[in-house]
Design goal:
This protein is α+β, with helices and mostly antiparallel strands and 148 residues long. It has a single domain, classed as Aminopeptidase (3-Layer(aba) Sandwich). Helix content is 28%, strand content 24%. It contains 4 helices and 5 strands; from the N terminus they run βααβββαβα. It has helices spanning 15-22, 34-42, 93-107, 122-130, and strands at residues 5-9, 46-53, 56-66, 76-84, 113-115. It has a 5-stranded mixed beta sheet, sandwiched between helices. Strand 2 (46-53) and strand 3 (56-66) form a beta hairpin. The longest helix is centred in the C-terminal third of the chain and has 15 residues, at 93-107. The radius of gyration is 16 Å and the shape is globular. The N and C termini lie far apart (44 Å). The model has no long low-confidence stretch (mean pLDDT 94). It comes from Pelomonas aquatica. Residues 5-148 form the N-acetyltransferase domain. This is GNAT family N-acetyltransferase. InterPro entries: Acyl_CoA_acyltransferase, GNAT_dom, GNPNAT1-like.
């Protein structure tokens, strides 16, 4: 990662830049409504982190800290929407923003952090393992809302 890179929390004022970056995650995604953007950034327990090089947002992820009644009532974290601009990959930006999110989860008292991916590429899995995740620790199951 370059020395001029900085990570910070994103707010509603960063929504346009974040939505543009998300095109490198899910190209062609329909944009959310302004109301949805406001609701997401106002949601307690959900934080978005952005890594900037100069004024450009080049990597991001979000962290949801979820309350819990097991494990002594300690929260757990869920990292989602990990993305690095296609032109900036391979420079450590993605790892840096993930490591930042993990540090924030530990600071919030989480006992674990979970990350899931729909990517089937073993290189993506290896990337997450380099970030410290254990791909064999848990198994995730997904159900999607039916169309209609």
């Amino acid at each position: 990662m370059t020395a001029e890179a900085a990570i910070r929390d994103l707010g509603a004022g960063d929504a346009d830049a974040l939505l543009a970056l998300y095109q490198h995650l899910n190209a062609g995604d329909a944009p959310p409504s302004p109301e949805a953007v406001r609701a997401v950034f106002a949601h307690a327990g959900l934080r978005h982190f952005g890594l900037f090089v100069g004024d450009a947002l080049v990597a991001s992820c979000n962290l949801a800290v979820l309350p819990n009644l097991t494990r002594g009532g300690r929260s757990h974290g869920v990292i989602e929407n990990v993305v690095t601009h296609a032109d900036r990959r391979g420079r450590g930006h993605g790892q840096a923003v993930i490591r930042h999110a993990i540090a924030q989860a530990w600071a919030a008292g989480c006992y674990k952090v979970v990350l899931t991916t729909s990517r089937k590429d073993p290189a993506v899995w290896a990337f997450y393992e380099r970030c410290g995740f254990d791909g064999g620790d848990k198994r995730a199951f997904v159900i999607r809302r039916p169309a209609g």
